[in-house]
Automatic annotation (TrEMBL):
GO molecular function: uracil phosphoribosyltransferase activity
Residue ranges the record marks as coiled coil: none
Domain spans labelled Phosphoribosyltransferase: 6-164
Protein name: Bifunctional pyr operon transcriptional regulator/uracil phosphoribosyltransferase PyrR
Amino acid sequence: MTRKLILSSPLLEITISRLCQELIENQLPGIETVILGLQPRGIYFAERIAQELAKNMPNAPLLGKLDATFYRDDYRRREHLEPNSTDIPFIIENKRVILCDDVLATGRMVRSALDAMTSFGRPAKVELCVLIDRIYNRDLPIHPNYVGKSVNTLNTEKVHVEWKEQGHKADKIWLITNQ
């Protein structure tokens, strides 16, 4: 197994700041923006986005956590899928929803999240913001609106994100190859 560092501080902070500037530039006039982090690892990215946006916007967007485990197309086929909590203390009806995840690979988790979101209302618009886009792994026609970094990967490779909030010493994103 080999590990290659593909992103870490301070470039990670610059990337998040750039993504937030894009989110601000594309605001919809008169429409409130909310952020939903995909459980389990997308919530750390969503929290960073929300913190950065709060510094640069007069009205900080609301932040929620969405678990789409029960909406996955492989839910009944996989063993040991443990759901996380969903915490969305607001309605998303007629709002701009920024769906945040750390890594976009096949697109199946995003499809599941879109299904799960319907329980909280019908948004005016949904946009996908990802830290890492594994561009050659898509199973579904899902494309992110905002990308921190695009990475060419093989099916045998994995992208692993380490956040300080998870107990790691530093934020690091690794490309792991099983040989």
